Amino acid sequence: MSPVASPRNPRPGSALPLDGTDLAILGELSADGRLTNAALAARVGIAESTCIHRVRALRESGVIEGFHAEINLTALGRPLQAVISVRLGSHNRTHVLSFHAALTAVPGVITVFHVAGEDDYLLHVAVRSPEALRDLVLEHITTHPAVRHTETHLVFEVFSGVGVLPAPSHP
Description:
Radius of gyration: 20 Å
Low-confidence stretches: 1-8
CATH topology of the domain at 80-154: Alpha-Beta Plaits
Helix content: 25-40%
Strand order of the largest sheet: 2-3-1-4
Largest sheet: 4 strands, antiparallel
Distance between the termini: 48 Å
């Protein structure tokens, strides 16, 4: 059954109507989520009261889901990153939901992508060492009864693309 559409949960493929000011606000916040309302309003060229109402509306509508810190994984003692592709042998709902639940408890898993194609999942992980990566795969992933195959790809470098928002207009 599909989730019910609401302002916080629009139908898949649908987008909320956003104007240029909303997009500018989103671009500035995605570049620096710690901007004060006054600084954000000045950068976007609107009144502070308008800015705070717009940001609140973007949060309430679900366009802004939260604010996050970008963590330096090497400084955290997790210099080795990998993407692990996982193929399931069974796609029955119980196995899939069980695998989802198991993934949320695996230390070192940063992001889980449930994907279409030959593989069913891509897991972005960060660990302390090659041995820790081996242990993560062997002790937490391949032991699940629904998993049929894994393939581990080491990450040499991570960088961001241009994204979907306009670049901030300030110098």
